[in-house]
């Protein structure tokens, strides 16, 4: 679905970022590309939680880093090493020369890039407003870093990811995205790029973007960088979808096999005043169910649930909001060509990088997300020029991000406000197999895990592939 916007976006923001950073040249240590102690690099902290059925949720303070391409690359004399169309070929004819000529500047002022954090809350603005009151495109993209200066690798096979989101200010044409990409854990850190992940390098996705650097290394042959991508949420206040994009080394299922409730015919489910009411915050739960209920099996389905005002909203579709191998392959031939859900499952098992973005799309106005069959927006109202004029304050707020065992990240009562350090209130404690806990899978084609549900839940059919303890 998402087309080739991301590389476009990076190029588009470069000019404004250089400008922004040039205002504060000394507010962050600059480093030779070859000399970058990650520990000296200041980034916004963000609290996230890991959860288990037995132990509840444990909060940990991590940090987010803005993408490598949003940093300024310059010589010691403050000449830019990048141009609007790529790198300066005189300064950067090859990796080693580039590293000796250029420094990478820390993007210390995240406010200038539209980003702020507080505790477990992450806020991202599409635009920043300058002294003259004009909207300047910020469109930040961030990654979650671990404690070691490498990316935090989320291993979500047989697990679930839950967060709360406020999309109330995002109009047609905006896309607030929370997704997973199979980037290198170190961001491709090497002798010529010792910053690596802690400077946001190594981005890849299922659109195979062509960037100035590829897996941390200067990209001298103009090649794209493809990797498995799992879009957990791509949304504004009017439409939303979640989409697996399996890949090979050289290409991907670029359209993906996503699920968008509006496109599936449930037109009143999601939106302002909808069943999921986007005028206020809500919680999004995404479960990666394996064929055998373990964290090492084959990814068989992905299920989606929402919580709002303490109430669990199971799905738009009475059969459940679920992507199965079968439904994924039914969209077109592309997913199957790249191994469908099992390919995504392998990446989820190995670990993927949590990515946050807010962007809009001057080429297609995000019609694939929210217009025509996909949502209630007109084909033209997603024009970024209109958004900047009418909604310059548009922003997304992500909070209370947590992941772990299926059923461990939210409570039975459906409360979306489980505090990060407390145990979900009414989850049956560490009940061992053979009974399955509330919300867990209990039957379906290919299922070999526990079929009995812990009291008082009963095994309920969602589809031939997925039964759940409800
Ligand atoms: C590239 O860098 C050289 C050396 O600093 C400079 O003279 C030249 O103007 C730069 N070219 C561009 C297109 O920025
Ligand atoms: C970041 O930039 C903003 C806007 O230019 C400014 O108000 C703020 O003081 C800067 N913060 C730091 C830490 O330099
Ligand atoms: C990315 O770079 C890292 C570090 O050099 C390397 O281990 C990894 O194999 C590279 N990945 C790809 C896909 O090139």
Automatic annotation (TrEMBL):
The keyword Disulfide bond is assigned to this record: yes
Catalytic activity annotation: Endohydrolysis of (1->4)-beta-D-glucosidic linkages in cellulose, lichenin and cereal beta-D-glucans
CDD domains associated with the record: GH7_CBH_EG
UniProt keyword annotations, A-Z: Carbohydrate metabolism, Cellulose degradation, Disulfide bond, Glycoprotein, Glycosidase, Hydrolase, Polysaccharide degradation, Signal
Signal peptide: 1-22
Any one GO MF annotation of this record: cellulose binding
Family label: Belongs to the glycosyl hydrolase 7 (cellulase C) family.
Name this protein carries in UniProt: Glucanase
Organism whose genome encodes this protein: Xylaria hypoxylon
